[in-house]
Amino acid sequence: MLFRRRKPLTFKEKLREHLWPRKGFVRSFQYFGKRLVRLAASPHSIAAGFAAGIVVSWTPFIGVHFVMAIIIAYLVGGNVIASALGCLAAGNPITYPFIWAFTWEIGHLILARDSGGSGATGIDLPALWHKGDLLQIWDPVLKPMLIGGIPPAIVSGVIVYALTYYGVKTFKTRRKERLMERARERMALADNASSV
Fold it and tell me: In which domain of life is the source organism classified (predicted)?
């Protein structure tokens, strides 16, 4: 191979690189940001799609987040790729435990339930999943998480839409100005060359 290492990484080095990249996680966030603002769509479309992906990440239905984000993005006139990037940015293995705990607690507050105090009965979640009966899982688990996900989804969706809209609009305006300046310079050079 052309770009192969002279000394291959050991298993321990590969594991460390996957868990904590050498260049850090900032580079990944920068990549997402650059990928987002460079999409060929209007600022509203990009912001609506990205916000749709963020909003969907607050729901407990992990297997269908991308499908739900695409449907919501289509309904609000958002970009489908931006919705997928929103799902990847907000819903990932690092953020899911925090999202689930947060939506669980908010759902129990809204439904006025005790989420795990002294009088609460325990939920045998593995047994419920083993049975595969969604109706038994709905009331104790999915309903509080779904209802608890509504307030943070609305708040984060509005904030993310506004930040993304103005960020993309600023980026595209500056990029258009730079391209116009380059075109003017080329025209001036062409005029100078033709007058000589």
Answer: Bacteria
